[in-house]
Amino acid sequence: MSGTAHATHYVRFHEERCTGCAACLRVCPTKAIRIRREKSIRIVDQCIGCGACIRACPAGAVSAATIGVEGIGRDHAAIALVSPVLYAQFPGFMPGGVLLGLHRMGFRHTVDMSFFLEMFQYAAEEFIQRNRRSAVSPWPLISPICPVVVRIIAFQFPSLLPHVLPVLRPVALMAREVRERIIPAYEDQDRDVVLYYINPCPTKSQPLSAPGPARRPQREAAIGINDIYPELRRQVDQILDSDLIPYSGSGFEFETCSSGNAALGAMSGGEIADMDVEKSLSVHGLQETITYLHKIEMGVLRDFEYIEFRTCREGCLGGVLTAVDPYIARRNVQKMIGVFGVGRRLPRDTILRLYEKGRFRTDQNTQELTRLFGARRPALSLEEAQKIETILDLIEGRDCGACGSPDCLTFAEDVVRGNAALSDCIWLQARRQKEALDPA
Fold first, then answer.
1. Among the residues of 135-213, which ranges form H helices?
2. CB 173 within 8 A of CB 119
3. 423 and 440: one domain?
4. 7 in helix, strand or coil?
5. Distance (Å, rounded) from C-alpha 149 to C-alpha 48?
6. pLDDT in tens, 212-261
7. Which residue of 53, 232, 263, 414 could cross-link 419, Cys pair, CB 3.0 to 4.6 Å?
8. Does the residue 174 lie in any domain?
9. Are strands 62-64 and 11-14 parallel, antiparallel or unpaired?
10. Do 262 and 325 lie in a common domain?
11. Residue 408 in contact with residue 414, Cβ under 8 Å?
12. pTM of the full predicted structure?
C-alpha cells in the first residue's frame, strides 16, 4: 500500500498521515513500536493485535489490516462468521434482519455464534469440574476467548500459559463446523469458498486450530464491523422499510440467531454469566488485564477457578472496530436479551459425548503458543544488562518518548542492541550542549 511505512498481521501504519505525536508508542503493551526521523514507524517486536495504537492515534495513521466489502461473493461462495457484537450495532433490529442484510450483500451463509458459545461453555464447565479432582491445570484457569489476552500471556507472562483453558474457542468451533458441513458441498461443485470473519477488533490472524478437512485451499479474510456497517445499515433499513419478514432461508440452525446467549457473551462478564462456575471473575480493559495477570503470577487469585479477561472496555462491545458507542451497544444487547431470553438449547449429554471424543481439545500447547506469540528478542547478557543500567544513569530518564522509543529503559536496551544511538536522547544532548557552553 502506497504510503504505508510498516504493517503487521493486525495493523497498518500510514506514514503520510503520521504527525510524530508518539501516542501509539506509549500505549503499545508489548513496546513494539518505534518512531524514527519523527514519523518513520517501525515494528521491532511482537504485535499482538490489541488495537490500542488504532484507538490512540489522533491522526488516523494506524488502521486495522482488514479488507473492504467490495466483491463479496462475486466469484466465490462467501461465508460470514458473525461476531455477536454485530447485532448490538443495530438498535431496534433483531438479529434475523441483520443476517438477512448480510445475505443481500452477497454472503451465501451467515454463521451465528450462539450454538458455539454454548458448546464452549459446556466444555469449559466440564474441564473445570474434572480439574477440581485431577488438578491437571493450575487455578485460576484463564478464558481463551480473547486472543489478545492469550498473546499477552505468551509474550509477557509465559509462566501463566498453563493457566489458559485448553478448550477450543467458539470462533474455532464455528470455523470447523463450516469446513465440515458446508464447504464440502461447494468443493463437490468445484467452487471457491471464502470465510469472512466480521470482527470488532483486529485479531483475526491467529491460527484457529483444528481446521478440519478441506480438499481445496481455504481463503480467509477479516472485515471490521466499522467497514461493513454503512452498507449493511443500508440493507437493514431497506428490509425494515419493505416490511419484509427477516427470514434468511438458512440451511442449518446455526446460521440463525434465536437466543440471547451470544449477545450476552459480547458484554464484559457475559461469558461467565451463564456458566456454572461460582468462583469466577470478569476483568475488562487492557491495563486492568495486565494488572490482574500480574496478580495471578504473584499467586493472589488462586482461590478463583476461572477468570474471563477482555482487553477492550465493556468487553467486545468496546472493540476498536465497532461502529456505535459501547454503552449504547450494551443497552441494545440488554433489550435483545429481554426479547430472546437466555438459555441453552443444546443437550448437555450430546456435548459431553463430543467432549469425550476430544472435539474441544486445542492443539495449541504452551510450546506452540510461545513459538507463535512469545518474545523473540535474544536474551541480554550480564554485560549488556550492566550497560543498560549505565545508560539509564547517564540519561537521567524522563520517559518522554522524544527519542522514538516508548520509555527510557526501552531506549537504553535499543542502544545496547544497536537499534538506537545515545545521540537520539534530546535531554542528554541538551545537557551536553549546556555543559559545553558553561563548563563551570
1. 147-156, 170-181, 183-188
2. yes
3. yes
4. strand
5. 9
6. 455 555 688 889 999 999 999 999 998 888 766 555 555 677 777 767 77
7. 414
8. yes
9. antiparallel
10. yes
11. no
12. 0.88
